[in-house]
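Notebook entry, structure prediction.
Reason for the run: the old model in the group folder had no record of what sequence produced it. Starting over properly, with the input documented here first.
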Amino acid sequence: MPPSRREVLVSAAALASFPAEGMTQASNTETAASSASAGQTSSGPSPGRSLSGSAMTDDGFRLYFEETGSGVPVVFVHEFAGDHRSWEPQVRFLSRWFRCITFNARGYPPSDVPEDVTRYSQARARDDIRDVLAHLRVERAHIIGLSMGAFATLHFGLAYPSRARSLLIASCGYGADPDRQTEFQAEMEVTAARIEHESMAVFAKSYAIGPARVQLQNKDPRGWSEFANQLADHSTRGSALTMRGVQKQRPSLWSLRGSMRNMSVPTLIVAGDEDEPCLEPALMLKRAIATAGLAVMPRSGHAINLEEPDEFNRLAYAFITAAEVGRWSPRDPRAVFPSTRD
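New structure, fully documented this time:
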């Protein structure tokens, strides 16, 4: 459901008190001039306008991006089975108040598809967020990621906490069990080989009806069909390389607990209660990150932003607003049960 009138007024007042501190002096005057002529303000596109383009990464590849709205920037990082289009329900809603930025990961056209698997990694996915921000002259942003994008969002918060206004980490945790890393890596290799052998057009037919995907199909057949068609359009080569370089090689979340305990960035963990591989990781993240909240959506699977867009948008809006006004504080130490400490 949309926010109440009181919530909107609170957010408007909060945003009015926050200058666009994420904007720094452009180093490329030509880019700045072209942005201005295209209807861009100092804090994003003019209200009601959308812009698109390509950001160059520090290792020489182009990433396609789109931005809509103006104000405090919010960056969306997509999952393996999605792309920038997966965030449309969120952009349509949140761009009323925020500068919404979506982009396609490397390997997802119209972004470049590097041919070398070593150009794909968890660290690279993390730094691609940084490079998109740099191109758009954004110093700090709220980062929202789902699944593969949630892993990248978490790693971004760990590596660049001063660049993150907040982190919304959704559907994060598949393959994170430290006791099953070898099994998970073998599964990812088999999946990558299947993609190469079958093509994404064929592979998508079975992937789109996995145990944590059928919830979307049951709730919203039309939305699921759109998701499945977009998945089938993905680059076969790029998807296989992403599976091998990013998914297969990413470290277990449990190995990051020491670093997560030192995090101070406002964080919200969101999971679907039928997305089994992500439930235990969600609890671990909540316990490890002192500034983390946890929301679990009932009768929901993996693509929760598409399954329950109204609820997802409500959570995101309330969380971002709370973070902006300094009302998302660390957990009271008195609220930690001794039995849950590691």
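Summary: Strands lie at 40-41, 44-45, 50-56, 62-68, 73-77, 99-103, 141-146, 164-170, 267-272, 292-297.
The old model has been moved to the deprecated folder.
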